[in-house]
Amino acid sequence: MLKKFAYTALLATSLAATSVQAAKWNMPTPYGDANLPTKIAYAFAEEITAASNGEIEVTVHSGASLIKHPEIPRAVKTGQVQLGEIFIGIMGNTHPVFKHDNIPFLATNYEDAEKLWNAARPEVEKQLEREGMTLLYTVPWPAQSLYTKKPVAKLEDLQGLKMRAYSPSTSRLADLMNTTPTTVQVPEIPQAFSTGIIDAMITSPSTGANGQAWDYLSHYTDIAAWIPKNVIVANTRAFKGLSAETQQAIMDAAAKAEAKGWEGVRAQAKMDTDTLATNGIQVSAPSAELMSALQEIGTVMVDEWKAEAPEEVSAILSAYGK
Ligand code: PCA
Q1: Which of 78, 135, 271, 296 has the smallest number of Cβ neighbours within 10 A?
Q2: Is residue 276 a part of any domain in this protein?
């Protein structure tokens, strides 16, 4: 009798244990651990795991180790993973609203970038939902500037160079600059420079510093052309399958994570620009001539963008006040 009781109790315990076992949630991210967005992703994953009271256990897979960056949107959309981090600009061909993130000179300081994000957010959210993804938070990168192997005084100095592209918009930009766009993912940047696959790139001081840009180039021209963001999304079906409390806890943690990014990005930009200079890269302000030529290209890109999706783009631009 005692034996039978003990067995039943054991069975009951193990059933209970099974029913409360946390669901394993995977969160692939594109960039390495040294980056601010990845640090924020780790803290977010830890926080929502704890706040879910055992409902989910989130594992971050940074540096595209689980899923290659271009595949992350599909992986989240199809539910292969429950969460993911994506550079917004790489979805530019999915819908033009995602291009708000890589348009040169639309927002070149962090206040404007935040305003632009507030303006774009409803449209971005709508398109993500159509793709089966729920927007959780964004993290801005430092402003994007020009890395070369020679000083650049005017746009013509870049003519014919192979320019790294990381999104449909930056490919178009490279065309308009009379350079040849070449898509290269972050981990491959050092090798792409040393083997001559690319001669120039436009990215943040962070990505230059993380990739030790001083090993393969010498000049950084601070054009601060745009301030792009990563977006962290959940598979909508997986998210809706959670208890209301956990959904709320995730949204609360997401709001905190987003605030952390906007707060941290300025200091990060300064620190990483200093690192470039300390390691011997010539950091300089752009000439007026270079800037006006680039700004003209920016105007062309805004017009092309508007023509692609007049309704949504006008909604974004008028909410932004431009
Ligand atoms: N680094 C990433 C995205 C923007 C940035 O600053 C990259 O270069 O791909």
Answers
A1: 78
A2: yes
Tell whether 3 is covered by a domain: no
Q: What are the two backbone dihedrals, phi and then psi, of residue 225, each rounded to the nearest 5 degrees?
A: -80, -30
**CATH no. for residue 115?**
3.40.190.170
Q: How many C-beta atoms surround the C-beta of residue 152 within 10 A?
A: 22
- Which residue among 204, 265, 271 is best mutated to probe the pocket of ligand 1, counting the most ligand atoms within 8 A of its Cβ? 204
Ligand 1 contact, 181 CB (< 6 A): no
d(CA 55, CA 272): 38
Question: What pLDDT does 157 receive?
Answer: 98
Q: Which atom of ligand 1 is nearest to the CA of 164?
A: 8
How do residues 119-177 score in pLDDT, each as one tens digit? Answer: 999 999 999 999 999 999 999 999 999 999 999 999 999 999 999 999 999 999 999 99
Q: Ligand 1 centre and the CA of 319: distance in Å?
A: 26
Does residue 101 form part of some domain?
Answer: yes
